UniProtKB/TrEMBL annotation:
Pfam families, per database record: Molybdopterin (PF00384), Molydop_binding (PF01568)
Name assigned to this protein: Oxidoreductase alpha (Molybdopterin) subunit
Gene Ontology annotations of biological process type: cellular respiration
UniProt KW Iron-sulfur keyword: yes
GO molecular function: 4 iron, 4 sulfur cluster binding; formate dehydrogenase (NAD+) activity; molybdenum ion binding; molybdopterin cofactor binding
Keyword Repressor: no
Length: 789
């Protein structure tokens, strides 16, 4: 790739504008066997293949054996917890964790010469997979207004540019500070502290796109916005229900916990539109049974629910459970628990007089026979764990569906006791810790009062922008500067064309990153890339190797210490980036000793414990083996809510009808097995039988036949929410086991179809699992129409 010499004019005119989307081109799709089990030897081979591809076999393998180990570093991928007891000496990582590590530990790096040779326009012609494989960013870069190539800039000058832009805004609320889930506790605490001292609560973060729905549902109901179970609960329980979540790809180490639970007698119900391999079976590559034999069968019962048919399914189960309780008084429901711990039971049960089981079964897509099987598995068990992922949280009624799950657990008394409770399976490895550290556009008065009492400044009280509101505010030019602490904002967010237009209206975009991504190519009038250390890198401060801390899905705070020599001497850790930005921006106006934090992570932790409950003796406890659990009253059966005191309320919800026109389909976006969030490791989706392609749409064969298509046909996808035509061109139809009128595609390729106004009620998350689309035969002239739009 070389720069386009004719691309730039002196006054900035006639500059080519790169597309916000991945290139509209097909590769060479090969359909392979759809698997009914996950992991095994192929996962090991895939993991080490990535280390070889990144030219880091020795260096990367050394790091793999320290990842998720005591005294090592936390995996930069998912937030599944590490065992509290002994950890496997063969490795506490999964295939996707190894791929994430390979891209961190790579010896390939991007220098100033790379940007000199490659214009932004040229780089945008690559797909996200190609962009991500360029290597580690190695020095700060700056894009001037009307520029076509990033240019090197010193760290001092970069901070001066940020400060100059921030200090000339008419209001602090014209800035927004985004956070990725990989940011450490220490950096997250400083980041939100800087934003508040600067004067804004505009802190959109990745929770706004993954599990905001979970917290919104749980907090008013059980008093905490987190899960209530520990890893040990999975080992000693009676029933595990997995709904809207795919362990084999999203949290592969979860399958080890499921297998251990099965060995100890637990049953598993899987509820999902697709029969994912990670729900069906697990071959543990660290055991003989997983290498030479068939491994472990996971799901005892699979319920093929329609997209957004989950609420009808849950209501149907409750009808059957009420019937079973009438026939077996006191044996199905926990009357003592309901009387002592809940409120609203009578109104809850009375609602079912207006529901019909046959109608609910039809709406759910699950047969009555299967519903009865599931209800009977639930009926006489008390130790029940329910897990969910974005298959629930990204639906428009996701908050209600999670509360309906809680209704079932409250009926059974199956929360707040060993082997029972809720488990939202979080994504990024510290997304939960970010929120604990007050990365939140809606901080509580109690949180702000503690900051004010300790630091002596008055933090802003007005709620800020979440991700969706921030995009709209950028579009309306109410926000003029976006600072991204990690992540790939453009590719993670909905309504890609709308979001790209919003980003281009900004005065400045700043991205703290380890690798190149599409958000560096769709930018404000000016742009900065600030390269930072990764989890696996040694972090030296004043001659001492530092450690950071993170919080996993089950509320355990643990240390993380990198072991690899950084690929460049020009990388700065995230905490020092925040401190230097604060010192240059706020200067003598600040009441905070930022230099103290700049020089000592222990100092940061000392002050976190004074501002956030549950972190007493932080520096001592985080150094203990395995770290420590944060307080979780609901885990012990104490439900402390503002509105209902010490009782958990039953919630009344509605069942959606989900009507579609004859030529409409419901689409849910998902990720491939070769992908973690917006990071594309490869072009295969091994478990679903897809090789070397991402632009596919999974359809039921009956729908394919009825529409006059056939497998392999090229089609264009359309969405018409808000009376706006959104187009995702050039996809290949793949026949798949999926409910009729339902389709599945990969993100970020189809994020363009998700309206910025298609959100989850109450949580305001993008409803990316509920998108109405139309499918038409591919028109080669569609690209002209897209350009006009």
């Amino acid at each position: 790739m070389k720069k386009d010499q004719n691309e730039k004019s002196s006054n900035g005119e006639n500059i080519k504008s790169p597309d916000a989307e991945n290139p509209y081109r097909l590769l060479d799709l090969k359909l392979t066997k759809v698997e009914n089990w996950a992991a095994g030897v192929p996962a090991v081979v895939a993991a080490f293949s990535d280390l070889i591809e990144e030219k880091t076999l020795v260096r990367g393998t050394k790091a793999l054996f320290k990842m998720n180990q005591t005294g090592g570093f936390d995996c930069p991928s998912c937030a599944w917890p590490d065992p509290d007891d002994e950890r496997s000496s063969l490795g506490e990582y999964c295939e996707n964790g190894a791929k994430a590590l390979a891209e961190e530990a790579t010896t390939k790096k991007i220098t100033a010469d790379f940007f000199k040779e490659n214009s932004i326009y040229d780089l945008a012609q690559l797909d996200d997979h190609q962009i991500g494989k360029m290597g580690r960013l190695s020095e700060p870069m700056y894009l001037p207004e009307n520029g076509t190539h990033y240019e090197p800039i010193s760290w001092n000058d970069a901070f001066k540019k940020i400060a100059q832009q921030l200090n000339t805004l008419e209001s602090p609320d014209q800035a927004a500070f985004y956070t990725s889930g990989r940011t450490s506790n220490e950096a997250s605490f400083l980041y939100q502290l800087f934003a508040k001292e600067y004067g804004t609560n505009n802190m959109p973060d990745c929770s706004n796109m993954c599990h905001e729905t979970s917290g919104t549902a749980l907090r008013p109901t059980i008093g905490i916005g987190k899960g209530t179970v520990t890893l040990d609960d999975f080992y000693d329980t009676d029933l595990i229900i997995i709904i809207g979540q795919n362990p084999g790809t999203n949290a592969p180490r979860m399958m080890s916990a499921l297998a251990k639970g099965k060995k100890n007698g637990a049953k598993i119900i899987a509820i999902n539109p697709l029969p994912e391999a990670g729900l069906m079976g697990f071959r543990n590559p660290q055991e003989i049974n997983g290498v030479l034999r068939s491994g472990v069968k996971l799901a005892d019962l699979y319920l093929p629910v329609k997209i957004n048919g989950d609420m009808a399914l849950l209501k149907a189960l409750e009808i059957i459970l009420i019937e079973l309780e009438k026939n077996n008084p006191g044996k199905v429901f926990d009357a003592d628990f309901i009387r002592e711990k809940t409120t609203g039971y009578d109104a809850f049960t009375e609602q079912f007089s207006r529901y019909n089981l046959d109608d609910l079964a039809q709406l759910s897509g699950v047969s009555k026979e299967e519903l009865y099987q599931a209800a009977e598995m639930l009926a006489f068990k008390k130790r029940i764990i329910v897990c969910w992922g974005m298959g629930l949280t990204q639906q428009p009624n996701g908050v209600d569906m999670i509360r309906e799950i809680l209704n079932i657990l409250l009926l059974k008394g199956s929360i707040g006791k060993p082997g029972a409770g809720v488990c939202p399976v979080r994504g990024h490895s510290n997304v939960q810790g970010n929120r604990t550290m007050m990365i939140d556009e809606k901080p509580t008065d109690e949180q702000l009062d503690r900051l004010q009492a300790f630091y002596g400044f008055n933090p802003p009280r007005k709620h800020g922008y979440d991700v969706v509101r921030a995009i709209k505010a950028m579009h309306d030019e109410k926000v003029k500067l976006l600072f991204c602490m990690g992540g790939n904002f453009l590719s993670a967010t909905p309504d890609t064309s709308y979001t790209a237009a919003a980003l281009r209206k900004l005065n400045l975009t700043v991205c703290v990153s380890t690798k190149l991504n599409r958000s560096h190519l769709i930018h404000g009038r000016e742009a900065l890339i600030l390269p930072t250390l990764s989890r696996s890198d040694i972090d030296m401060v004043n001659g001492q190797a530092q450690f950071i801390s993170t919080e996993n899905s089950m509320g355990v705070v643990q240390s993380s210490k990198g072991i690899l020599k950084p690929v460049s001497d020009h990388l700065i850790n995230e905490t020092q980036i925040v401190c230097r930005m604060a010192m240059v921006t706020l200067g003598e106006k600040s009441v905070i000793n930022w230099m103290r934090y700049h020089d000592s992570y222990d100092a940061i932790r000392d002050d976190i414990e004074k501002c956030i409950p549950g972190f007493e003796n932080y520096n001592i406890r985080v150094r203990e083996k395995g770290g420590f659990y944060l307080p979780n009253a609901a885990r012990h059966g104490e439900f402390i809510t503002k509105e209902f005191g010490d009782r958990a309320p039953f919630t009344l919800t509605e069942v959606p009808q989900n009507e579609l026109e004859n030529d409409e389909y419901m689409m849910a976006t998902t990720r491939t097995h070769d992908q973690f969030n917006t990071t594309i490791y490869g072009l295969d989706d091994r478990y679903r039988g897809i090789k070397n392609e991402r632009r596919v749409i999974f359809m039921n064969q009956k729908d394919i036949d009825k529409a006059g298509f056939k497998t392999g046909d090229k089609v264009d996808l359309f969405n018409y929410d808000d009376n706006i035509e959104r187009i995702a061109p050039l996809f290949i139809i793949v026949s798949y086991q999926i409910p009729e009128k339902n389709t599945v595609t990969y993100f970020p390729e189809t994020n363009v179809l998700v309206s910025v106004n298609n959100v989850v009620k109450d949580s305001n998350m993008p409803a990316s699992k509920y998108v109405k689309i139309k499918i038409r035969k591919h028109d080669p002239e569609i690209y002209t129409k897209i350009k006009q739009l």
